[in-house]
Amino acid sequence: MKYIINCSLAMIAALLLVNTTYASEKIGLHIHDPWIKEAPPNATVLGAYMTIENHENKKFIITQITSPLFKKIEIHKSVTKDGMTTMEQRKRIVIHANKSFILQPGDYHLMLIKPTKPLKHGDLVPLTFTLENGKTIIAKAKVKKVLGSMSPKKE
Ligand SMILES: [Cu+2]
Hints:
- It is a single chain.
- The protein is mainly β and 155 residues long.
- It has a single domain (2-144), classed as PCu(A)C copper chaperone (Immunoglobulin-like, Sandwich), CATH 2.60.40.
- The chain contains 1 helix and 11 strands; from the N terminus they run H-E-E-E-E-E-E-E-E-E-E-E.
- Strands 1, 2, 3, 4, 5, 6, 7, 8, 9, 10 and 11 form an 11-stranded mixed β-sheet that branches.
- The chain starts with a helix and ends in an 11-residue tail after the last strand.
- The structure holds copper (II) ion.
- Residues 76, 87, 109, 111, 155 line the site of copper (II) ion.
């Protein structure tokens, strides 16, 4: 199982070679390579992944994420205990001063719930991140087809 996961992570790394960064002019918080794992057209949830980089000497807290293409977005963490993987909801994402926060398959991710239309490889999904201080950052996550299973539990 470990080998399969490592193999999948290598595939993800290959997919991320094209670098896209989203930032707000006034905030030293960058969102790198946001992407969404393509799912069957009837899927009711999709996972979104990215790296959030904090270039300031203070922490940032993301309290809400919204998209016009989804009814609701939750912050989740996949947790494996005794061979069972479940997803726990988190209320916020804390990005500490000068640190990165990684959302990746099998770990922290955004759970995009109830798409308003089917999404396919290449589509761009606008995401608005709201910080605790009221500021917002807008990013566009690209839908990508990924072959094989990236985590034991299907999302
Ligand atoms: Cu989830």
